[in-house]
Design a protein that fits this description.
The chain folds into 2 domains: 106 residues; 137 residues, no CATH class. Helix content is 25%, strand content 28%. It contains 2 helices and 17 strands. It has a 3-stranded antiparallel sheet with strand order 6-5-13, with no helix packed on it. A 3-stranded antiparallel sheet has the order 7-8-9, with no helix packed on it. A hairpin with a 5-residue loop joins strand 7 and strand 8. It is elongated and about 100 Å long.
Length: 253
């Protein structure tokens, strides 16, 4: 009976982990540029001091994300930009390193610093982009930033920088716990920064929506709940069978 318990017990545990992934996806169904996490189940040998070669357990993993593009939604807001096709915005993470996101609902703080979400937006030179206070900002389809100073005429428009856009191509980006993506570290273990790409096009006044399907997410929630109940029932059945077996072995006669 212990084989049955190993599989059902580990399956129930990993089903809860899978449920957390689905819940996180659903929580970001309205987050601009969000990429859904994909979860898979696999069997693994039981390791440790009680190693039993004939026993297996279940493990959940999130090896990759759904890289498909989300729907484009036109907002008309000047600081909303969406990437049309492949590509990523470069931002500065909490440790000061470069990371990547598809989130394009930009904003500026009281010092003129441009942000994507809560992370400073980076320019081609790798430095955070700053907009002069009071200036009107225009974003070109290639990521070029131009401004007209407060009280100035349109012919006084000046270019102040360019948003760093990268295209990892066939290289796989790794999702961090902060929701940002990064390339695999270099051989020395240090983080890497991708070079700017000139072939990426932006759509201004629009946002890319999350590629999470709310309907599929709700179905996955129900499926996980039913699977968890089934696995708990299997544990109860194994326990009942073990008790009956012990009762038979304890009979005298």
């Amino acid at each position: 009976m212990d084989r049955m318990i190993y599989i059902a017990m580990s399956g129930a545990r990993e089903t809860l982990a899978n449920q957390a992934v689905v819940s996180n996806n659903l929580a970001n169904v309205s987050t601009s540029g969000f990429r859904a996490q994909l979860a898979v189940m696999r069997n693994v040998p039981v390791l440790g001091d009680g190693l039993l070669p004939t026993r297996v357990a279940t493990a959940a993993a999130t090896p990759t994300s759904d890289w498909s593009q989300g729907p484009l939604m036109h907002t008309g807001r000047e600081l909303d930009v969406a990437i049309d096709g492949p590509g990523w915005f470069a931002v500065q993470d909490g440790a000061g390193a470069e990371a990547y996101t598809r989130r394009g609902d930009l904003r500026s703080d009281g010092n003129g610093l441009l942000y994507s979400g809560t992370h400073p937006l980076l320019g081609d030179d790798g430095a955070p982009l700053v907009v002069p206070l009071g200036a009107q900002l225009f974003i070109g389809t290639d990521g070029t930033l131009s401004v007209i100073g407060q009280g100035q005429e349109p012919d006084a428009m000046a270019e102040i920088g360019r948003i760093k856009l990268v295209d990892p191509g066939a290289e796989t980006l790794l999702r961090g716990d902060d929701g940002l993506f990064r390339p695999a570290p270099a051989a020395d273990g240090l983080p890497r920064a991708l070079p700017p790409a000139d072939t990426i096009s932006l759509v201004t006044g629009a946002l890319e929506g999350s590629n999470v399907s709310a309907v599929e997410g709700m179905v996955a929630l129900i499926d996980n709940a039913r699977r968890y109940e089934m696995q708990l029932k299997a544990i109860e059945t194994a326990d009942e069978n073990a008790q009956r077996g012990n009762s038979l072995l304890s009979l005298r006669g």
